[in-house]
């Protein structure tokens, strides 16, 4: 009988042993105090157990440790009470069809990944502003899951849970088992026990844990929950992290990290990892090669450790494929979801394009439940006019429990952007941005174009960021010398931006010889046109940059990759051309290249076998493939509307490809000066300018509106209010201010509107209107030439402000500041009222109805003041001759204490006397200059304002309230109250949805949807709307085609050809030859599009019907038709001038459209159309177009 080794008994353990009683299988526990005899006999039978019997250990385990009923120590009824509990679940009616709660039942497994378009999404984080009714309706079960506390202990829906804390890490002995059962042994009546439980719960529990890290996480949690106590105070959600502070205690704070790298992390990476450990969201802005991927890798490792999931989204499909390969080798458990591929979707890390994540969120996918992190790579893509809105939608729709990681190129407004995300999500975002480049860059100008001049390379910007004008002028001289010689021999020739192909060729040959001699390869040459890329590569027919060993390696890799294609496809002209180029170490990378070739080129490039790569800008956007040198063929590009210089952001993004971390000490960036040297100012802006700020491209799409309308609890206005474009709204402070103002209004004294004062309020409104009209008029006068002429030195004006009432003044000086123009003037006043801010409190604007001029009662005095435009209430027809300098000097002198009592100087007293004479001559009122007749201001606004002012001024005299003795104080009260009320109304408007900038467009779009019957008048989504939700782009047109049966008469291949107009966006010169049925189909599509376009126009959407119809291009109909009928790719390429890569990409996207139409047909119940789409889809999914990516194999 084998004995189990039990550790020596501790002082707490009783010496125990087992004694078998007879052969009935009963055991007794016996203690043996005698140390002499360590183990007593194990049975009361003489010879121990028969060999056939079960081992004692197994029995003990089974009886004592595994089955509660077998605990023989006490009454078994109690034991059952302790271990079994029946919980009634009430309200199990929550499902994906009626609740946003995470508590709802999961849907059918088939829908768990992508969700279904009848599902509700989960409640987006930060959308907690529920109405009272919604809160009342919220059932017990729908209570929010508390992610902060006890989720790992208490399952949602239950009141209490398990206690997993290790009481002590003692070895398991039977005695320790018994001691834990003690509390069961002496069970008091249940009621008492419950009370005890309560007390112990209130005592602070120290979390017990075997790793510091768990404690660390908890500490992080507490920090994070502090701001929640007073969310209004916490204004800045974005917290910039100081990346210069060294992170010395990093390994102390994270003793066993979830992921270890073979290199020491940079400070900014450590800071990010610390934030991730504390479960915070981060925004990391850094240059391309700085190592942002580290942050993503750590998050993926953390979620694998926590058994949760991470979603990694990237803007470009090619990038998704690459990341899939990289992460697959690192983590193994990685899946990929793009439009056409779905690999191991059950993995803990899912890589997908942002559009797919958006549809998963709208369709309530079950993946979201387990989601811990979403990583957004290349966030600066939010600036993309076409797709930027998708990022905003996803960020707004993400539920509360998901933490966000944003990785971006360096952007100037990272903090502002993070603040926005923090505000809509109600969580802190830590902003970590670093300008440091691991490999510094040197920027050169290159003017060489022949063997003689091949060394002409001039440093323009050194690694520390100094712009060297010396290098610039040297380049200009070198270029000038050559052109002048040329001009002497051949007569003058104007330099143009464009160079001939042979000139280009000599420049490239010279440069590449020079670079390969200096071992500066691999080189990426950015060229901003696809044809230019191809031409440049082809012109290098004499260059050979690879050794024979490299040639063999390239050849075998190329053959192996291409062997996956069908026979005919291997002989495509593009593949043959590229094979010859690649063998010499040259390659081309742009959207016209076949996807499989692009991948071969990328892989060979990253192995260093491609020495020169001619690429367009897309290569810099996603593909993380640094080179030793980057060359700019030109710094001008065509952006769809016209030619322009590169923006600083674009230049930095592309130049940042130079310099491979760990391989090159510095990266080289070369700008070619082919025709002439670029302007210095242009170069300076491009190299040292601020990169593009992140700007909102938020716009309303019908899909978004319909998806939100089908869920009652979400409103489209909520989405609009949270968009980055509305980021300037600061609702929290406004709400706070509104409540303050409301209190102020209620605390103000009541208004007295009895008897004489009954027309007080109308009087106030008239005065206010008069004031705004007068101000508008005054502005118009000041902005006009004649007005400024009139308001010149010596002009007599009427002054009204706190101190003066209808006093005459004369202008002495006019300030030169055109924005806030001030006038220094000499004004008449009473003696003793010279000081500014005197006793007057003319808040009731008496001058508006009392037009008698001010004539001093006692001795006349004067004051010199700066007047603003508001103080000048009228310009009179009179002017005086004054000597301004003397008056001002004399007045200033007499302001000093020792000259205080001097009599005023000659100039002043003359002017004062003149003014007084004028006032006494016209006591009732002075003739003033009329803006329209005298100042010749004839614009409509001025004429209207003048008339309105006259009417208002006359009407003021009719009011009774001005005669009341308490008029002034009552008016002050009214004014105070109205001011508060006006501010309150303004804020209420700003907080309301009425002030949303997109609101009018939203109403227009709703009108379109109603007239097409996608939604009914109450906003409920109808069948057509349901169908449109399925479709991601051009939803209106597709749905209309479906409901008008445009696709029914067509064969599968014809319908595929017809739908190609939705995915093809380029222009083509070739007229397609097509069948008559297809031509009819095209005409019907165009007529439907025209109808939708006109309807949109009627409802007020600014796009014209022609623009709407113009976005559908039928250039590829013939190509797709022939492809679906089985024609080989080589022949198809002959049918069109569109490049092969573009054709492939279009057919791949067409397949996604066909899938959507198939789904839509299913919803409508049109099984014939559904199967037809299936057939069409099968017909186009073949050969080179649907070869799986090399990265995913």
UniProtKB/TrEMBL annotation:
UniProt entry keywords in alphabetical sequence: ATP-binding, Cytoplasm, Helicase, Hydrolase, Nucleotide-binding, RNA-binding
Highest taxon in the source lineage: Eukaryota
Subcellular location: Cytoplasm
One Pfam family of this chain: Ski2_N
Reactions mediated catalytically: ATP + H2O = ADP + phosphate + H(+)
The Helicase C-terminal domain, residue ranges: 544-709
PROSITE patterns given in the database record: HELICASE_ATP_BIND_1 (PS51192), HELICASE_CTER (PS51194)
GO molecular function, one term: RNA helicase activity
Residue span of region Disordered: 99-120, 191-232
Stretches assigned to the Helicase ATP-binding domain: 273-429
Record's GO cellular component terms: Ski complex
Residue ranges with Basic and acidic residues bias: 191-205, 215-232
GO BP: any one term: nuclear-transcribed mRNA catabolic process, 3'-5' exonucleolytic nonsense-mediated decay
Entries under PANTHER family matching the protein: ATP-DEPENDENT RNA AND DNA HELICASE, ATP-DEPENDENT RNA HELICASE SUPV3L1, MITOCHONDRIAL-RELATED
Protein name, per record: SKI2 subunit of superkiller complex
